[in-house]
């Protein structure tokens, strides 16, 4: 019998890569999708015929109990979230409902239907926020700097709590920023790769950005979903930091991107205050020693390779759309 996994957030960046990985590993993949007035399956269109997509919402526990009862997965990956940090200040309550309380709802749905299900929670380096030590690892205290970060801290601890209270196989992956050509257009690396491609093709002249000095540990989403899967294959549930161990500023990322397209960053980047945040996370860099040693996880993509791949992909995409 093939193993069965359920993914919440399958229509997102990570959901699409994780679904590909699970299919390649011989899984039957159930994707929970929320109702919307227009279909948004772009990221999974190429594998849609191999997936079972079922309606459900992380805001609605009954819908998840129904899905779990009907499809009986052995593994659940909770990727659903309001995941854009800037939006979490304008929609803090929604962010809390989805990104924090949503985790309790799915954990509880699992507890009620089949507590043997193995559970993955998509925790985030945003929980470290105003960092208390560098680099950040599993034991680093949290100090979130946005409603999103606060919600993720709740999601993280409720996962730990269900593991300890009900002996559930619940693990939390503390993932640092990871990107790809499938990243949403509002996140910095994709905004830059897409903006550079538009300038290259003569569709735009400038790219408006906020804080160029913030530093992040950026990796490739395709590498990071391997860590999610590996965590659920361990005998013991645990929490793991997943990161490259390198940090780069927004400015450096822009330089690599503009350079790839043969453009000068200084000719096009304009600072726009609307993209500054009420509280910033200045520096993130992770130490993934535990993930390397315990689950054998390695990153395969370099920072430059990632940014260049994203720029190339956006130039190809826009060129095909304007042809
Ligand atoms: P993403 O592209 O924003 O995808 C989020 C997913 O959540 C989408 O499929 C979205 O569905 C779904 N969703 C939102 N609200 C929902 C609801 N009420 N019910 C059910 N589904 C809902 O995010 P991502 O980059 O793939 O990240 C995946 C997870 O990892 C998120 O939890 C994120 O917070 C976390 N994370 C991401 C990173 C990163 O660098 N990418 C780092 C650390 C942690 P729609 O398509 O319908 O909107
Ligand atoms: O910002 C700065 C911004 O929006 C990165 C999410 O996946 O990773 C992501 O959160 C940095 C910040 O990602 C612009 O101030 C400058 O310092 O790409 P971002 P994020 O906020 O780090 C974590 C790990 C998650 O868990 C989240 O879900 O870039 N920045 N100028 C800008 N950022 C944006 N978006 N737009 C700008 O114009």
Quote the CATH topology of the largest domain: Rossmann fold
Rounded mean pLDDT score:
98
Radius of gyration of CA atoms, rounded to a whole number: 19 Å
The level-1 CATH class of the largest domain: Alpha Beta
* Strand percent estimate: 15-25%
What's the domain count? 2
Total strands:
13
Main sheet strand line-up: 3-2-1-4-5-6-11
Q: What's the helical proportion of residues?
A: 40-55%
Largest sheet: 7 strands, parallel
CATH-defined superfamily of the largest domain: NAD(P)-binding Rossmann-like Domain
Which regions contain 5 or more consecutive residues with pLDDT less than 50? none
Please identify, by name, the CATH architecture of the largest domain: 3-Layer(aba) Sandwich
Overall outline: globular
Cα distance spanning the termini: 47 Å
Global structural class: alpha/beta
Order of helices and strands: EHEEHEHHEHEEHEEEHEEHEHH
């Amino acid at each position: 019998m093939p193993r069965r996994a359920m993914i919440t957030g399958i229509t997102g960046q990570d959901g699409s890569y994780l679904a590909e990985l699970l299919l390649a590993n011989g899984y039957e993949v159930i994707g929970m999708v929320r109702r919307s007035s227009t279909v948004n399956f772009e990221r999974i269109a190429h594998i849609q015929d191999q997936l079972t997509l079922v309606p459900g919402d992380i805001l609605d526990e009954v819908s998840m109990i129904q899905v779990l009862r009907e499809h009986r997965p052995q593994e659940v990956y909770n990727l659903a979230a309001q995941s854009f940090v800037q939006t979490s200040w304008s929609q803090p309550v929604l962010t809390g409902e989805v990104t924090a309380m949503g985790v309790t709802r799915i954990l509880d749905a699992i507890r009620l239907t089949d507590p043997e299900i193995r559970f993955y929670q998509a925790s985030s380096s945003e929980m470290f926020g105003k960092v208390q030590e560098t680099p950040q690892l599993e034991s680093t205290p949290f100090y979130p700097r946005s409603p999103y970060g606060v919600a993720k801290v709740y999601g993280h601890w409720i996962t730990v709590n269900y593991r300890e209270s009900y002996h559930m196989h619940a693990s939390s992956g503390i993932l640092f920023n990871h990107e790809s050509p499938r990243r949403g257009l509002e996140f910095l690396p994709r905004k830059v790769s897409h903006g550079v491609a538009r300038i290259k093709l003569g569709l735009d002249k400038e790219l408006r950005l906020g804080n160029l000095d913030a530093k992040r540990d950026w990796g490739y989403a395709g590498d990071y979903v391997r860590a999610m899967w590996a965590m659920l294959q361990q005998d013991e549930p645990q929490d793991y930091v997943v990161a490259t161990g390198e940090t780069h500023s927004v400015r450096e990322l822009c330089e690599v991107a503009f350079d790839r397209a043969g453009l000068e960053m200084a000719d096009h980047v304009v600072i726009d205050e609307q993209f500054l945040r009420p509280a910033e996370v200045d520096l993130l860099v992770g130490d993934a020693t535990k993930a390397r040693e315990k689950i054998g996880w390695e990153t395969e993509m370099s920072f430059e390779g990632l940014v260049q791949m994203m720029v190339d992909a956006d130039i190809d995409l826009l060129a095909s759309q304007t042809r």
